[in-house]
Amino acid sequence: MRFSTKEIGILFTCIVLDRISKIWALRNLKGGAYPLLPPFFKLKLTFNEGSAFGVKLFDGKLPWIALTAILITSLYLFQTRSQRYKLGRAMITGGALGNLIDRLLNGKVIDFISFYKWPTFNLADTFITGGLILLILSMLKNDDHQS
Prior knowledge:
The chain is α+β, with helices and mostly antiparallel strands. The protein has one domain. It has helices at residues 5-28, 62-76, 83-106, 123-140; strands at 34-37, 41-48, 109-115. A hairpin with a 3-residue loop joins strand 1 (34-37) and strand 2.
């Protein structure tokens, strides 16, 4: 299974944007919450030691096993699909790698985007969610052709 040059570009763009945003958050959001659209949207630096959206689903090595399984599935199951599917795959992989880099460097993930009562998240989470939406749309529209 190979990524196209375009997919690799998207994947690395996701990683770079995620890293830049997290470095910015670490440098600029240390003083608490910064409301942008009170009470619905604010920037607030938090650290996620859990699995997804701060929820501790597993302890120890299980999150690594789950992340590895997701990446392998993304790499091997979705080989001959549409451009929408490939874009979704690249976004999911880029987002997952962005959060993996955080876990490797810090032992936790940097989150800073907060919408009302939703758990705080980051750009990598946004890329993963957007990629999943693209994959689902591709499956629903039966984009099974290779383009």
